[in-house]
Amino acid sequence: MAGYDDRDGFIWMDGKLVDWRGANVHVLTHALHYASAVFEGERCYNGKIFKSREHSARLRMSGELLDMPLPFSVDDIEAAKDAVLKANNLTDAYVRAIAWRGAGEDMGVASKRNPIRLAVACWTWGSYYGDAKMKGAKLDIAKWKRPSPETIPHAAKAAGLYMICTMSKHAAEAKGCSDAMMFDYRGYVAEATGANIFFVKDGEVHTPKADCILNGITRQTVIQMLKDMQIKVHERHILPEELESFEQCWLTGTAAEVTPVGQIGDYNFEVGDLTKRVALQYEALVRA
Do 280 and 195 reside in the same domain of the chain? Predict the structure, then answer.
């Protein structure tokens, strides 16, 4: 398959559709040097982006948290996503909206005089973890920890916050794993590199408290689904030694959707009935 810079199609940039291969930025773009970028990952099912406006609103909120107010409203972002899907003739797709500080008068840490830009792209993308959706993903345990909220704007979906995620996922793949689970700065279970995590014990669900991790839109959706199913959900701090007591585990995220986990380090989990039920109900919900 061609690289992401060499494809047919169109990308929406700053108010207009441009040829895919021509959707470029200057090498002195501020975001390239200082990670001044925020983004969203979304999935379109049967012509409709799931939780689209929530994603657009979060993109704007992420920009504000980075002192980078977007000059585009939620309606502007929604129109851009609709235009790029139609231009590429896609009804089932992954959608990536990204806003960043571009090249301008500033080329130091400060960048108030540089324009804030926005682009939206879309492409077909299957299961994020391949066949793990059937047999359960295998996760490494990352050496990097999610930082304290006193050191990062953890509620923002910001490009710079994914550096240690990339490093952790590379290390996991080198060991034959699909991903890595990360602890937080206190040593509690946090999340995978790009997905939230859930555990099952005695018919109840446990998931890390989102006090230093991104409170994912899919995470929130699945928690509400579980509550509607009359299943008790505990949002709490989870200690590493508790991993051996959990029976089932799954990941949630726009790309991951609901993906069962079969192994984390030396701990094994079954792809049990509740995991399968949640995955099926989520699939039905997004395609409703």
Answer: yes
Q: 102-105: which pairs have CB atoms within 8 A and are 24 or more residues apart?
A: 102/25, 102/26, 102/29, 102/30, 102/31, 103/25, 103/26, 103/28, 103/29, 103/30, 104/30
Q: Are strands 137-146 and 116-123 parallel, antiparallel or unpaired?
A: unpaired
Q: Check if the beta carbon of residue 116 is closer than 8 Å to that of residue 70.
A: yes
Q: Reply yes or no on whether 112 is catalytic.
A: no
pTM above 0.85, yes or no: yes
**282 and 144 in one domain?**
yes
State whether 162 and 249 are in the same domain: yes
Shared-domain flag, residues 21 and 142: no
Indicate whether 108 and 149 sit together in one domain.
no
**Of 81, 133, 138, 157, which one is the catalytic site residue?**
157
Same domain, 19 and 78: yes
Domain for residue 3, yes or no?
Answer: no
- Output the 3-class SS for 273-288: HHHHHHHHHHHHHHCC
Q: Write the pLDDT tens digit of every residue in 157-211.
A: 999 999 999 999 999 999 999 999 999 999 999 999 999 999 999 999 999 999 9
User: d(Cα 67, Cα 36) in Å, to the nearest integer?
Assistant: 9
Residue ranges making up the domain that contains 40: 10-123
